[in-house]
Specification:
By secondary structure, this protein is of the alpha/beta class. The protein contains 10 helices and 14 strands. Helix 9 runs parallel beside helix 10.
Length: about 300
């Protein structure tokens, strides 16, 4: 699908709009959720917490049907303007067969999350044509620095074309390329390969980040995806944080070796992912990645006016 044929850009958020919380993955702490909720309210948003959101079933936030129902319900609800996930963890992949992709396509809304939520960002783009937002979840917002919070609000409420400057970045492979931005957590994306929900990376700028994965595991996942043909027609790669994954130089060396025969640009060092800062990246929107100039510049705003 091309961007013009498929892209559904959500409406821009304004003060007074209602953002609903969903829990597609793991359970979470009530107090941390409350602190994150207050921060959203401080930005002028009305927060809707569905009854039963705090349900827990071992390492999941309730049954698969329960978690999927919230997503389907909030996309269908005309009173909900945006949706943000409570937490990552694990579990989003389990609900993919239960989502109503047509209803989601018919009701495009700002949808925010990262980490395990990567599977939803990827699949909602492919199945529903929805532009989404790789950004903090409610529980991570609770302790997020101001730069992370402000980045989120700029992405979802501004009519500006975002430009991510990576002043402390590293050019792993030089060059410049344009494409639709996609990706997210490397481990989570890797688990989609070989399923009916595997994303198509053709002509895309692929963003990758991860947390608490040993360097050999990062190597293994990249090789797995390479052998599966995921990188054959990429436009470029942008790397975010790799928190507790060994030294960052080890990771960069692994990436450089994996893609040594490729010609597309690779820029590392975006403050996006599980690190101290987690700036928001719109997915499904076309951008230019300039590894020499160390920036990612979007071609349009990630939202549209009401």
């Amino acid at each position: 699908m091309t961007e013009k044929e498929a892209l559904r850009v959500p409406a821009r958020l304004r003060p007074g709009d209602t953002i609903g919380i969903v829990a597609p993955a793991g359970p979470f702490d009530r107090d941390t959720l409350a602190r994150g909720t207050r921060l959203l309210e401080d930005y002028g948003l009305t927060v809707f917490t569905p009854p039963g959101l705090l349900d827990a079933n071992l390492y999941l936030a309730g049954s698969d049907q329960h978690r999927a129902h919230f997503i389907n319900q909030l996309f269908a609800d005309k009173n909900i303007d945006a949706i943000i996930c409570a937490r990552g963890g694990y579990g989003s992949i389990r609900i993919l067969p239960l989502l109503d992709y047509q209803t989601i396509a018919d009701n495009p809304k700002v949808f925010i999350g990262f980490s395990d939520i990567t599977v939803l960002l990827a699949v909602l783009a492919d199945r529903s044509g929805l532009a989404t937002f790789h950004g903090p979840v409610v529980t991570s917002l609770a302790d997020a620095p101001a730069a992370t919070r402000d980045s989120l609000m700029q992405a979802v409420s501004s009519d500006a074309k975002l430009e991510i400057q990576v002043a402390r970045g590293k050019t792993i492979k030089p060059g410049s390329a344009s494409g639709i931005v996609c990706g997210g957590n490397l481990t989570t994306l890797c688990h989609l390969i070989g399923t009916p929900y595997a994303p198509n990376f053709t002509d895309k700028i692929l963003f990758l980040e991860d947390r608490a994965e040993a360097p050999y595991r990062i190597d293994r996942m990249l090789v797995h995806m390479q052998l599966a043909g995921c990188f054959e027609n990429l436009a470029g790669i942008a790397l975010g944080s790799f928190e507790n994954c060994g030294t960052i130089d080890e990771i960069y060396n692994i990436v450089a070796a994996t893609f040594q025969d490729r010609s597309f640009p690779i820029l590392a060092g975006l403050e996006v992912g599980h690190g101290k800062n987690n700036h928001t990246l719109p997915f499904g929107i076309e951008a230019t990645l300039n590894a020499d100039g160390r920036y990612l510049a979007y071609h349009r705003a990630a939202t549209t006016g009401h």
